[in-house]
Every structure is written in structure tokens, then in C-alpha cells.
Amino acid sequence: MALTAKDGVGGTAIRPPATAAQRRLWAAEQLTRASGEYNVPVALRLHGPLSTPALLEALRALLARHASLRSTFDIGRGGSLRWAARPPAKDPVDSRDFTSASDPVGAATAFADELARRPFDLGREVLRLALLRVAHDDHLFVVVGHHVVFDDWSVAVFFRELEVLYALAAQGIALTGVLPALRYGYTDLSLDERRNLTRGGLERHLSYWSTQLSDAPALALPTDRPRPVARSVRAGRHRFTIPGESASRLAEVGRSARATLFMTLLTGFHTLLRKWTGQTDITVGTLVTGRTTPEREALITCMVNTLAVRAAAPGGATFAQLLDVVRANTLAAFAHQDAPIDEVVARLPDRGGRPPLVQAMFEFQNTTMDVAALHGGEGDVPAFAGLRTLAHPFTHLTARYDLELAVGATPDGLTASIVYPEDLFSARTVAALAEDYTAILRAAASGQEVSGTRP
Asked: Per the CB 3.0–4.6 Å rule, which of 118, 289, 317, 428 could disulfide with 313?
């Protein structure tokens, strides 16, 4: 599991340029310093005879395997952001014993919350690990990564590999070489991106986005409260479900239109926003993982990019007609996903103080439900040999958009949640949005006419 030269260690190693996603998130961290807005905290409650030495050995192996988890970033000559990796730490975990506290669980939870909110200095670290003992055979394992290297896919890879490494270490098996070698590293990712730039691929993608989005109107969502001058990140979340029967019928609706379930659900969101704004030209953001090859799927690092799916249709358009528009523009958006969203926005005309291009975000979590479970949603939490594990969701949320709708597929149907800024919306309004979205999908699934007016 030793590093290859291409991944580099320390200040004397090769320092490839940061990727577009990392440049964007590094800049965002500088703008929101001390907010912890881009921290990605996850935690597990571990009940049972935990082998602390085995967990530490597994974590050391995991950090040696993935140089990205030891990332540091700095500004090089010419003002470019550069990447490097620190040498693996011998003791990467902050171990604390709270058993003597009057309320061990409360004390450990408070410590974990502080760790989750604490801002990162990206010139020094991108990951924090803590093992908090609250009773005999009862621990809280905390992982806080910065979004610059930690996206949902990365979280899933992290815990999937940690499960294997812990199980083997607990049996006394040496961990060297037990996981398939990573044949594609961070440096490869950075170089691939640079090659795309030099071969003109980026210009082709940017040209498409300039044509598609140059005159996209802002989303005029009616809010319960005036938009504050200084945005805060205080957020609420409303969870709801969509029954399995409706989900199956929606999939059939999509197939009949040569569309995926993702496109059908996104069309439902466009329909909802059309109803609540009265606008017929709507732009919604969605995320792509950037995992376009099997080699990239094995990496722990952030490759997420935002795509803006614009759909304009007459006010009287049916759901099927709007689905055709969303389908076509989604396919085009994915075909041009290599253009980083910040460079797309930089190419567009100055919005002159108008709201950002993307104010509403849609995610369809059909492959990361286990990650959703770590945040209190549906799915299976990681399983560690000989232990009973429970998710320990963090209570604080951040709102980066006016509305973030996430839908996930489960064996029983669809689960969904809306994250929203409490500065703008009341819980009652968001509950009404969720009810209306559900009604739109139910009507589409049954072939009924979808109303074009706000409730």
C-alpha cells in the first residue's frame, strides 16, 4: 500500500495542480472561513468489543492507500493552487475517554459536534478522525472530511474499504496488499484534466453552456421572509416518502418517453417550480460524480461538478411535453459535464447583482443510499466485524441553495428530503412544497393532467 511517486509525499514531491473541483471548493472555503459550511461529518456508534488496535491499523492502511486523505493545498508560482500529500501519521486518531463524565454520551456528542463544525486549514489537513469512548464496549467513531476531498462517493469508498481492513486486522492478518492496487491516482486525475484543456475539449463544452445559459432567467421563488443581505447557512430539513407503487409507475412513464427515472423525477421538480413561481423557463442544478471510469470509481477525492438543466416550455405544456424537454437538455448537459461550473458561470454575461444561476438543486441518490443512512436517511450503515453499528447523524445542516431536493430509491419506494434556508422559508411552506411535489408525481404516474397553478 505504499505510495507511488506520482502521488507524492511532502514538500519535495511532485506537486500537481489542483483539479477544477478542488479549486472551486478551496476558494469557497476561503470565502466562508470559520463557518464549516464545506465540512462533511459522519459518525458511527459502535456497540460491542471493539478492537482499538485493529481499527487504528485499518485506518493507517487506509490513509497510506489514499494520498488524498492526507492532502495539503498551497498557492504556487503564478498564483495556481497546488496539491501535495503529507506523510502518513503514526497515530491519525484523536482518542478520548468520556466514561468519567456525568453524561458520557452528551459530552462525547458535544465534542463530536465541535469537531464537525471546526473549520479546516487546507494548507495543513483535510480529514479529522476521533474515537470517543462513552462506556465499556460503546464508542463513537467520528470522521470529518472537507468537501475538497470528500464527496458522497468518497464516503462510501472510505467505509467500504475500512470494513474489510478492520475485519482482517481484527483477525491478525497483515494488511499489506489485501486490497487491489490503485492504478490511477490523484496525479493521473489532475493530468487528465490538463490534457482536456490543451486539446480544446474544454472550449467545446464552454461554448455549449454559453449558448444554453446566457439568457437564463433567475428563479423567483416566493419566500416567507425577505432575503437577508448577508446569507446565513441555518437550514431545516423536511423528509417525506413516495410509495413504491407510484415509483414503479413513474419508471414506466419514463421508459415510454425513453427517459430515466432521474429525468422523470427532475421533470416533477421543474413542474413544481413552474407552479410556485409562475415561470415557464426554469433552471435547476444537479450534481455529477465525475466517476466516468472504473479507475476513478476507486478514488477518494471530490470530483463533483454541478450541471444546470434548463427547461423552457409554454405554460400549458403537459407533463409529457415537459419531460421531452428535460430529457433532451439533461442528455446534452451530461455530454458537456467536463466543463467546471465556475468556468461556465465566468463565461456567462454578468448577472448584475441578480441571484446566482443555480438556486434550486435536485439530486437522485440511486447509488449512495448507504451514505444517506449515515445522515439519518434510509439505507444500511457500515458493518464492522463483531460490532453492532448505528448511524449517529449530526443535527446541524447548511443550506447552500434556496431549495435542495434529494430523492433516493429504496426497495419500498422513494424517500425524499428538502433542505432549505430558514432565513427564507418556514417549515410549513416547505411541507406544502413536498405535498405538492408528491401530488405532481402521483398524477404523472396515473396519467392524470398535472395542474399548472399554485395551490
From this structure: 317
